[in-house]
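Following up on my earlier message about zinc ion. Here are the inputs again, as you asked, copied directly from the submission form:
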Amino acid sequence: MTASNDESELFPTLAAHSEADSGGSSTAPGKDDADEWQRMAAREEFEPRTDQGEFLEAIAIEACNAPASEPVTLTPTEQLVAATDKVRRVWGHDSLRPQQEDAMAAFLSGQDVLLVLPTGGGKSLCYQAPALVRPGLTLVVSPLISLMKDQVDGLLQSGVRAGMFASTQDPEEQALVQRQLNRGELDLLYCSPERLTLPGFVPRLVQAGLSAIAVDEAHCISHWGHDFRPDYRELGDLRQHAPGVPMMAVTATAPPRVREDIAAQLNLQQPVQLVGDFDRPNLTYRAQPRGRLLTQILAVIQRHSKEAGIIYALRRTDTEDLARDLAKAGIRVGAYHAGLRAAKRKEVQEDFLAERLDVVVATVAFGMGIDRSDVRFVIHASLPKGIEQYSQETGRAGRDGLAAECVLFYGGSDHHTWKRLMERSAEEAAATGLENAKEELNDALKRLGQMWGLAASATCRHRTLVEHFGGAYSDHHESPGCGACDVCLGELETLDDAVVVAQKILSCVVRCDQRYGAAHVTDVLRGAKTQRMRDTDHDKLSTYGLLKELSARELRGLIDQLIAQGHLGVASGEFPTLFLTQSGARIMKAEDEVTLLRPKRPAASSKRKALQIALDDTPVAQDLFELLRKKRRKLAAEREIPPYLIANDRTLTHLAAHHPKTEGELLATPGIGEKKALDLGPIWLKIIRDWLSTQTDS
Ligand SMILES: [Zn+2]
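Thanks, got it. Here's what our run produced:
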């Protein structure tokens, strides 16, 4: 085998390949900024398909140079024990969660695995730790370069033999990885899907000792997911090129239908399916009708002074306007959307990761690869288009396991905006001859309806989320309330006379001939003295002024709830007129019950205790925590990596609570393995020692 032969064969194929694909995007970019689907927005960070010159050299791995693997002497059970030991020594975790252990056991015994764990649930460990005990190379497919780089940097910090191939690397870096591969010096190799689909690449990795494959963010392969990437589809061929190599597909978000699709598309062989507990008990969810948005947002930020947060807005202009207003209020904030120059986006992202910015106001383009683990709040300034998207975006809060807050501000207009966008994009798709446009529209509307239900109904938010992903909430929790959402915390007031109020609203909709929208119905019920009331003669209706004791905002909130519960419908088309549904008619006839909520006061300032007490309830010395945090920022800047790769908040909190004095005590800290104890241990110990001395002096 010679490289030049392969190059001459590969070049024409490659050229045809990239051309064929460049025009084949499945969704046209939306004309409207709001139609900024995630996958399109993040596009520029994806691995480009061109410039493969240096790469061809990199894959010229001599077959005879296959790594001198250790002889396979360990049984799968022994390997699992060894992997658990690695988890402790390399990553500093004392124990595995049940699904992690099951996933590793199955993977090490050579089975295919489909692993669905929530963000922060320790997914990557499930293929990383086995890679260290399994002979040969584990290949990891990852969708974004930034994501790969962070993972590899983190692994290197912990002393793991990991590398990556990316177009952003200079020739020297690529040559180094190639040498390491040739010598069998890598346990983990990260690649983009685009790289893998190059003809000849995987077979050569097989020759070089490929023994396992992990596909990260596997939902990208599914058309039903919200992050579909056509490039992922080609991963189906992996199985063909690497027969007998066990494959693990991991994702944080996959309802049953997407799971099935992942298994089918990747050709997983009777995969062991493991679905984690989707409940994130450290997240407190709140949903409130949108009023004075800036005031509402500032109230949330006040509860998290100087802490990290992300605010999602629908439109690009919204992100910039909001960021400007927040900056005026003294917040260290940046705006991020796909319309910004790549350099500007990179700057905002890096400033946020390096803790130079506390808050980023962003469109959904700010997504994968934002790996800051100490995000303490995520705010949605409007309704997301589905629960999956909401779950993934809120999943960026509290990844360190400490308390964090997710607040959703919504309005009926959001629902209508999305519906219009979806209908329009379906019309366009149908016009271009796409066969299943109608089906996709129904699917999208169903997802939107579920999200709307989550926002505007009176059911525990944790329960709704867990059940959406096919989990059974009651199985894990004995008490009816979660204690971590506005519904269960009693921050929303149940209306005593809900049925009567609902009847007044529904009756008003009927008396307006079901030809007016929520704003008009609100005006009628509040007895607005406007020209429009007089023009329509609606000031003469029996329902005029019937609910004048409520504020317009409260009333709109109630109408939204009736829509969310299906008692009122909203017409399709240009005007979102309200109409009575069958269940609404039953309520009017007093044949059915209804529950309506309204916010009590502004959410009681339940100042979280996350940083005052560690996870084991030991008090945390806040000043020591700040000292450690400052040092972490400095170290991160010196090493040019994000601070959380030095140590996450959970580690620092533990240090600031337990004040370890020896290396042995240090190793009991979550997130500090042997390499990190050696590398950073003396630094932490010195800070703690110095701090302790000031404590005894005083
Ligand atoms: Zn709850």
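One observation from looking it over: The chain has 31 helices and 17 strands. Hope that helps, and feel free to reply on this thread.
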